[in-house]
Amino acid sequence: MSAHPHIDDWPHTSSPESGTSLSVRILGASGGIGPGRRTTSILIDRDILIDAGSGVGDLELPELQAIRHVFLTHSHLDHVAFLPFLIDTVFRVDAPPVTVHALPDTLEALQRHIFNWVIWPDFTALPTPEHPALRFRALEPGEQIDLDGRWITALPARHTVPAVGYSVSRPDIGAFAFSGDTTSTRHLWRTLNELPRLDLLMIETGLPDEMDHLAGATRHYTPLQLVRDLDHLRHRPRIAITHLKPGYEQTIREQLATRNNGDMIVLSGNERFELVG
Ligand SMILES: [Zn+2]
Ligand SMILES: [Zn+2]
Q1: What is the spatial distance between Cα 58 and Cα 46, in angstroms, rounded to a whole number?
Q2: What CATH number is associated with residue 84?
Q3: What is the domain count for the chain?
Q4: Residue 11 pLDDT more than 80?
Q5: Residues with a beta carbon under 5 angstroms from ion ligand 1
Q6: 203 C-alpha to center of ligand 2: Å?
Q7: 156: nearest Cα among 201, 191, 199
Q8: 14 in a domain, yes or no?
């Protein structure tokens, strides 16, 4: 087969459960809210969620119930806001817990500020402490987790709070990476270059070039910074841009287009990619 897997946009016909593909479904890719805008959330196959922004709210109940693992990039609200609703919606007394994987700082923030019986019940102790609906599992950048042949690795990122990105790969099928929220950091690009392959890279470009001061303060990418850093990537993946600030989507799109002639798409939040080896 080709060294570069075939990537189909939505709609698609092959089944993510077929065992021969890796499905990446974008549920939310906006930096804010409004008609048609959902915040960051990505469904891998049927059972793995990366971030739990407002895009999760569009899934049907059986799709919500199929989620077994949630990987969080960081603690900011646009990435975790729908986790409490997800857990409350799907938990059953006889169901195994949903596992949330994240940096220790992120898990501590969730426990202290959200699942604290004030903002939301503590589902790490409900319905009973022995059989909770939610369990936390701490991870560190570089750590690799095997979930039925899907290898998930936390990638270094640089944001205003401790943050990671993730790569998800199936050897011989394809590899997807997501930056999470980050500004420029050589650690991310070095780690991406060390991956054996990279077929689809989803990376944020949160703010337009004229807001580079704000981008520096809030640690997001601008088009100029991103295109500069992409020069250092040894892989040639399809690039998918996410987390655009509402109202600036067209500006960011144009700024990226004038500086880049690669295979780049700006996500609207309802795309689906099928990596097939
Ligand atoms: Zn953030
Ligand atoms: Zn964000």
Answers
A1: 14
A2: 3.60.15.10
A3: 1
A4: no
A5: 76, 181
A6: 11
A7: 191
A8: yes
